[in-house]
Design a protein that fits this description.
Elements lengths: L2 E3 L11 H7 L3 E6 L4 H13 L4 E5 L9 H11 L5 E8 L7 H18 L3 E6 L2 H11 L5 E3 L6 H8 L4 E4 L9 H7 L7 E3 L21 H12 L3 H16 L13 H4 L20
Parallel strand pairs: 1-2, 2-3, 3-4, 4-5, 5-6, 6-7, 7-8
Helix pairs in contact: 2-3, 4-5, 6-7, 8-9
Length: 283
């Protein structure tokens, strides 16, 4: 059984990435997102050091959107060889950059993804409506990966209509993650990815510890419970999805997914709408 960890910040972890990759014996490959120019360069160096095992992205996190003028040239230079654009998006919870800067820089990333025909990795916290505005305005939905998806059914259904992919992380397995699981129950398996967001958001039973790619299987196991599927099938489907998104033939937008909903008719919301809870968010 092999997984793909579609979002792990190996370059932001104090531990040796070689050791983390060695421990991830059931992880075929990983995606290492950049959050600024330097971390994007570090991610590219990891790709060079681990060909076939590590893919890199290039982008500026919304926390640092105010630095776009200083970093845009370098990020634009890295973008053509990156597997995706991002991590970008909007974070209206911490508001470490002004909202206007975040929206402007998010749109710049979208423009770059559209120009290059690459996926775009999107961070969204307390900004679901504003992110939808950008996606609808630019029609970038089919190229969009919603990183660490934590929304409930309402917003999940809205984003499903946009054609995005949903990447689930530790919160789908948290004791407090009922809302996340309700949202995940709305997502067809062919629209889902799994991630760790290493070194953040470690799933149970490792809460409070630095996360690592090996634990992506725990995220997949939580999704298997939500969907009523075997864990092995979730590993296969999400890995196929990751390859379709991040390894498209000859580049370009992700291909249209197979109709797995027809193959797995029992995949349906399995959790009662009366359940309530909250998800957490990493980087």
């Amino acid at each position: 059984m092999q997984w793909v960890d579609t979002h792990c910040h190996l370059q932001l972890d104090e531990r040796d990435p070689v050791l983390l990759l060695e421990r991830a014996t059931e992880v075929g490959w990983v995606v290492v997102p950049g959050v600024d120019l330097e971390s994007s360069k570090q991610a590219a160096r990891l790709t060079a050091a681990h060909p076939g095992r590590v893919l890199a992205t290039a982008g500026l996190h919304p926390h640092d959107a105010g630095k776009w003028a200083q970093q845009c040239a370098g990020l634009t230079e890295l973008a053509p060889t990156a597997a995706a654009i991002g991590e970008t998006g909007l974070d209206f919870y911490r508001n470490l950059s002004s909202r206007s800067d975040q929206i402007r820089v998010f749109r710049r990333h979208v423009g770059l993804a559209l120009e290059l025909g690459k996926p775009i990795v999107v961070h969204c916290r307390d900004a679901f409506a504003e992110v939808i505005d950008v996606i609808e305005d630019t029609s970038v939905g089919p190229q969009t990966v919603m990183h660490c998806w934590t929304a409930g059914p309402k917003w999940t259904r809205r984003y499903l209509d946009l054609g995005v992919m949903f990447s689930f992380a530790g919160p789908v397995a948290f004791e407090t993650g009922d809302t996340v699981r309700l949202g995940a129950a709305q997502v067809p398996p062919e629209r889902a990815l799994v991630e760790t967001d290493t070194p953040y958001l470690a799933p149970p039973p490792h809460r409070g510890q630095p996360n690592e790619p090996a634990w992506v299987a725990l995220v997949g196991a939580a999704l298997a419970q939500v969907w009523g599927l075997d864990t092995e099938e979730v590993a296969r489907v999400t890995s196929d999805n990751a390859a379709r998104v991040f390894l498209p033939p000859k580049g370009g937008e992700p291909e249209s997914p197979p109709a797995l909903r027809a193959t797995y008719p029992n995949v349906a919301p399995l959790l009662g709408e009366e359940m309530a809870g909250r998800g957490d968010s990493g980087l």
